[in-house]
Amino acid sequence: MQKTLRRTVLAAGGTLLAGAVARKYLVEPGQAEQADPGHPPVQPLDIIKPHPPTILPRLTFLDADGKAQSLEQYAGHGLVLNLWATWCVPCVAEMPALDALSRTLAPSGIRVLTVSLDRSGAAAVRPFYAAHGINSLPVLLDPHSVLLGALGLDGIPTTLLVGKTGLEVARLQGPVDWASPQAAALVTKLIG
User: Which GO MF term does the entry hold, naming one (predicted)?
Assistant: First the structure.
């Protein structure tokens, strides 16, 4: 019972945070016009603050077929690990850019992993990918939002940069235009 209540509170908090992030990044204060949700919101890349490499807890999630996956399966690859959901406006806005980033970084061995927190799992993510032309990202799932607690996160979208040694080297909360050449260069530099 307490676990269910905690998850409900976390989900509600994530929804509120997503709304606050959307208001902050999709519409500038004082602007009369509405933001175009078809374009990824842009945050300055300098908000990605590198920190001393940190050991991550054991992180597990599911693939589209419901099989358990873990970050250890990607050993030796640099990772861009993004937590998102189809109901999160800023998350939805940055998904095409993450898809483009995945294509850009693939030759360098850096993988972009987007883990959906949608409770309905692949039933929500597959049609979303199809409707938005997302074809370079795997369907990865955390329908019980376990990763939020394991990583001590307040909300989504959140992106972790994980070096080839498996250590977290940077963390970013909020949406970014990951498709820019500057983003790919910074990710490559930080991950090594």
Answer: disulfide oxidoreductase activity
